[in-house]
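Bench log. Compound arrived from synthesis this morning; before running ITC I wanted a structural hypothesis for how adenosine-5'-triphosphate sits in the protein. Inputs:
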Amino acid sequence: MSNPTPSVGPGLPETQSLATDTVTAPAPPQPGKKAKDAKPASLWSDAWYDLRRRPMFIMSVIIILILLVMSAFPWLFTSIDPFDARSCDLSTARQAPSAGHIFGKDNLGCDVYAKVIYGARNSIIIGVFTTLVTTFIGSLLGMIAGFRSGVVDAVSSRFTEIFFAIPPILGALLIGATFRGRINSIILVIAALGVLGWPMTFRIMRAAVITAKNQDFVLAARALGAGAGRIMLRHLLPNSLAPVIVVATINLGGYIAAEAALSFLSVGVQSPDISWGLMIADARTRFLEAPLPLFFPAAFLSVTVLAFIMMGDAVRDALDPKLR
Amino acid sequence: MGRYVIRRLIQAIPVLIGATLLIFVIVFALPGDPIAALFGDKRPDPAVAEVLREQYHLNDPLLLQYWYYISGVFLRLDFGVTFADVPVSELLLGKFQVTLNLALMALVMEAIIGVGLGLWAALRRGKATDTAILASTLLLISVPTLVSGFVLQLILGVKLKQWTGADIFPVAGTSAGWRAYLLPGFVLAGTSIAYLTRLTRTSLAETLRADYIRTATAKGLSRRRVIGRHGLRNALIPLVTYLGADLGNLMGGAVITESIFNLPGIGNQLFNSVYLREQPVVVGIVTVLVLIYILANLVVDLLYAVLDPRIRYE
Amino acid sequence: MKKTSADVLPVEGGFGNEPLLAVDNLHVEFHTRQGTVRAVNGVSYTVSAGETLAVLGESGSGKSVTAQAIMGILDVPPAVIPKGEIRFKGTDLLKLTEEARTQVRGQRVAMIFQDALSALNPVFTVGWQISEMFRVHRGMSKADAMKKAVELMDRVRIPAARQRVNDYPHQFSGGMRQRIMIAMSIALDPEVLIADEPTTALDVTVQAQIMELLAELQRESQMGLILITHDLGVVADVADKIAVMYAGRIVENAPVHDIYKGPAHPYTKGLLDSIPRVDLKGQDLYAIKGLPPNLLDLPTGCAFHPRCPYRQDNCVTDHPPLHEISGTRGSACHYWREVLDD
Ligand SMILES: Nc1ncnc2c1ncn2[C@@H]1O[C@H](COP(=O)(O)OP(=O)(O)OP(=O)(O)O)[C@@H](O)[C@H]1O
Ligand SMILES: [Mg+2]
């Protein structure tokens, strides 16, 4: 038998690729029935029907919606502007929570609550855009590799191996340190995580396309002389989308955690910009006497990551009833 | 088998070259002049600096520098010297030991807790225990090391010591021997524990539905033997391979944990070296990690063949 | 000392007129999300030492579920046995403790399955799997048990048994794998052997060899054999009597010759008519019309009535009991006389 490499590879530390192991391409459509587009459509509508009944899914959607509003209109949640230096008062550093400052004050005497609220924006932006970048690059290359097979496939698969071999956080740390200060720090974080994150999507997309490509209706379309572009777009993409979307959702949470880690290591978002990772890094120096300024951003970070992973879990279960 | 190993090693060469070259290029692009950094605040004598530049091949084209480096590593096991003239291998040996200890501790915890919880859940599938275990894996996956590290350090390290007076879980450094790795090991293992729990659960549950399990029951074996011998032996295959591949991940992902618990491992070293622009150290660390990744995957493949007789490498 | 089954099973010998194994009014239900699947609804059959009972019936009629109930290898839940007895030498197996049950399973009543490739454990050698019976149940040493395994593989005529004990199941051909399955099941000289479609997965020539082997082993050891099959040709050759199942019930049971002479149930008649026959070559093959019953919602009265050419009004309302036709024969049809006369 040939190479049985288990599909366990390193991912970003918070989202190891196991997520991908439990995701399979949707079951092949029944031959005969109007399989063409009917299958993906009913797959999604079944999944949607199922999802609306899952408390975990509903909970995660609510949390994510709140986070989105928080990042778009943070002033709805707090009247303090944390970017305004006058809002901080060193003499009140590490003050315990009070009516005016419900999360207390940090090492510089700034309001923790306001900073935590404003910190959501960078997390969401970085999470969403990194996911878009990795999903786009990974899917595109994965689709081409899976569809073309042969040399194209062999070369691109080896090429992605290279990225798997580099420990993601260390790689991102290097990229961050190298280009820090030369480009906008948020774009830098997205780029660093994107460069190291796309191979996972590549693998999943490639596997899904290889499965889909050998199904009857695709073979039929090819026999009828449909062009490569049309086959990929009309037939392969809809049938390979499910696992990619599941992994994208779960990874989004992972990227948010990774952003915090990079900011914590001071190669991510740079002060005076606000990030939960930065807040944790700042608070750690006096952490043992005053744990609250570290605790609140940590809690927000965890809940955010949890929401996306819960959502991904729910979507995966809904799309793959076998796993129940 | 031997031929398979050789073929796999040959296939790994482009990966190794690609990954190290990539790192080399990035590190080369690190801002600032390493020779200047070496002299700190003093301005170096241009002549001395030039000699140093020649000595470290800094004036050669990038690809040539890469060749000097990589051939040194593989032909002479020479990872070069730092700009302070300490051999990189000497500097890194102790650091790797710390990270390896940490990763091994995490691996052991993963194996014990992850497999244990997974088995428990699989045997109680659909019951409250199963649901509770699944919910806890969700938490373990979602709480980033950055958070779990500090929280556990505070609660299990500091507070527990204040309450009980006993230093059960040391919170920083390596002076307490293996106990020093307990807390950081758990923190590092967190996500993997959750994944392994889920993997064990699905793997065993799937195995227990297999026909040969029904046969084993029909042979009149006790439930204990059916599950423990016939089921587990098969369910184990993906678990062992997951664990094997995870060693590399853990070592490469330890930087946050090392930072929180003040462990002098390679993650910490890399972090420092990046700031000191010690390019040979940075490249050395990543090269070794890439090698570990490649070897771990090879070992996993071979382990597969040992565990599953249906797989043969020819 | 290992306990032998004799220590646990209360009645040994002296079970009077009782046949070796008697299934009596057995009911099995599966509680699923969709509702209660009534897979077995009052099955009774018996088998004596040295006798072969063939169980026939279309897919889903509950043949395997009945067999699994006898072995006690149904998954509980979802399976529930609300009613019925399974008497082995007079002792109701359903009333035994799990421990006592384990002592019967495999040692006194054994079973072989349809697909030997999936029924054998892929990661253990065949020798290990056969010898496990001796190690676990007889407390033999590894080496002795292995010797026994080789003997058994010889007995089921696996060529070069000694060289092949350490091979894995996937290294054998389908027929050889089924022989290994058989060797494993007869390892401890069971008194009853249940063979659930033992040849369905094999090609025709191999099928005949396996049936021959089973028949021969049975002659030697005087086991009671319950043979579940779709192959009416095989039945005529090896079976002593036949039980025909439909929708989880026995619709007809009879000595094999009686049935071939003239079935006494419309369903049996349909089954026999659907065998291709040389003398009727060229004519359309008969097929029982209609769909198999929905076990979630069984038809009222006789479960076969929606498909029955002999149907009368009372078939829709009255459930036919198993009418005794002769001492050894029964039919669950209100109009068995008409069927028999045709
Ligand atoms: N675990 C289960 N859960 C729900 N229903 C089940 C289960 N096992 C069996 N059944 C149902 O019980 C019915 C009888 O199944 P059984 O396997 O006994 O049929 P069979 O007569 O052996 O058919 P075949 O000839 O195909 O082997 C089937 O309709 C099946 O769907
Ligand atoms: Mg069956």
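What the model suggests: Residues C 63-64, 196 surround magnesium ion (ligand 2) (CB under 6 Å). Residues 1-38 of chain A have pLDDT under 50 and may be disordered.
ITC booked for Thursday regardless.
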